[in-house]
Amino acid sequence: MRTALRKLYWTKVRNFTGHSWPVRGHAAVFVLLLLVFSCTKDTDEAAQFFLRGNVQLQKREYREAIRYYTEALDKKPDFADAFNNRGLAKFRNDDPEGALADYSRAIQADPDFGAAYLNRAEVRLETGDAAGSLSDLQRIRTEYQDSTYYQTRLGDAYVRLANTAQAQAAYDRAIQLKADNVEALTNRGALYFSQKAFEPAREDIEKALRINPKQDAALNNQSLLLARAGNYAEALVAVDRALTANPDQPYYLNNKAYLLLMLNRPADALPLVQESLRLDNANAWAHRTLGLYYLNQQQADKALTEWRQVEKLDASVDQLYYYLGKAELAAGNKAGACAAWQRGELAGDQQARSERAARCR
C-alpha cells in the first residue's frame, strides 16, 4: 500500500498495501490523567469515576473503562476529558464510530481541546475521511507542529489525499524530530515504494526493522521489496513474520497468497486470498491475485470477472491491462484483448505495449 505485490500498507494507514505496503498505527494516546475541579459533590464524584476509568484503560480493560467514563459523564455532562478518554477506549474496543462521536463531543465541550482534535483526526483517517482528518490536523498545527506523532499523521493524511510532496515533507519532519520513529520510517518507505524509488524505500524499511524487528507493517513492506527482486522465498519468510504479529491483516494475507502463486503453490494460495477478500472485498490487489489464480488455472471467465473488478476499484494496479488482455485472449476475445492492451499502453504499461505489438498488428 502500498512491485509485484502491491499496495502499500501504511503503518497507520497504512506501509505497502494490498498486495500492499501497510501504514498502520494506533489511536493517539492522549489520555488526561488528572484534573482539577471546583469542589462540588458531582464534580468530585465525576473525577473519581474518571480516574477509575483511566486505571482500566491502562489495564486494557476497555469495557470497564467505558463504563467508568460514562459514570463520570452522568455526573458531569460537559466533561470534555471523559469524552476524549472514552473515545480512546471505544476506538481500542473496535468501535471507531463511537470513538468519533465522543471525540466530537469533547470538542463541543471544549473547542480548544487539541488532543481531542488529534484523536479525532486519527479515527477519521482510519474510517476513510482523509479530508476531515487533515482539517482537524490543520486546526492544531501551531500547537503540535513539533510533535513527531503529529507529523506522521499529517503525512498519512496527505498520502490518502494523493499529495505526495506534502506527505514527504511531513514524514521528513517526523523523522527529523525523532530519528527512531519506526512508523514514520515505515510510511515514508511505503511512499518511496509507491513512487518507484526503491532504494530509499529499502533504506527506510531496513532502518525501521533494525529499530523494531517485529514491526509487522515494515516486515510486510520488506516482503514486497524482496518480491520485486524475484526473491519470493525470502519474501514469504518476511510476510509470515508480519502475519505472526497480525494474523488477520487482509493485505498481508493477500501478499502471502501472491507469493505462493509465484512459488507455484496455487492450492495454498487460494484460501488465503479468499480470506483476504472476505475481510476486505474492496481491495483491488486481492482481486488481482484471485484473477492471477484463475488465469493460471485456465478459468478465463472467472479471471475476467476479477480483472474487471480490479479496473472498477483501482485502475492504477500494476499490469492491470496486460493481464486483462491475457484473460480476454484466453476467453477467445482477441479484439477485447487488443483494446485492453491499448489502454495499458496509454497508461505506460510496457508489457501491455509488447503484447499489443506482437498480437494486434
UniProtKB/TrEMBL annotation:
<keyword id="KW-0802">TPR repeat</keyword>
<dbReference type="GO" id="GO:0046813">
    <property type="term" value="P:receptor-mediated virion attachment to host cell"/>
</dbReference>
<dbReference type="Pfam" id="PF00515">
    <property type="entry name" value="TPR_1"/>
</dbReference>
<dbReference type="InterPro" id="IPR019734">
    <property type="entry name" value="TPR_rpt"/>
</dbReference>
<feature type="repeat" description="TPR">
    <location>
        <begin position="46"/>
        <end position="79"/>
    </location>
</feature>
<dbReference type="Pfam" id="PF13432">
    <property type="entry name" value="TPR_16"/>
</dbReference>
<feature type="repeat" description="TPR">
    <location>
        <begin position="182"/>
        <end position="215"/>
    </location>
</feature>
<dbReference type="InterPro" id="IPR050498">
    <property type="entry name" value="Ycf3"/>
</dbReference>
<protein>
    <submittedName>
        <fullName>Tetratricopeptide repeat protein</fullName>
    </submittedName>
</protein>
<dbReference type="Pfam" id="PF13181">
    <property type="entry name" value="TPR_8"/>
</dbReference>
<dbReference type="InterPro" id="IPR011990">
    <property type="entry name" value="TPR-like_helical_dom_sf"/>
</dbReference>
<feature type="repeat" description="TPR">
    <location>
        <begin position="148"/>
        <end position="181"/>
    </location>
</feature>
<dbReference type="GO" id="GO:0009279">
    <property type="term" value="C:cell outer membrane"/>
</dbReference>
<keyword id="KW-0677">Repeat</keyword>
<feature type="repeat" description="TPR">
    <location>
        <begin position="80"/>
        <end position="113"/>
    </location>
</feature>
<feature type="repeat" description="TPR">
    <location>
        <begin position="216"/>
        <end position="249"/>
    </location>
</feature>
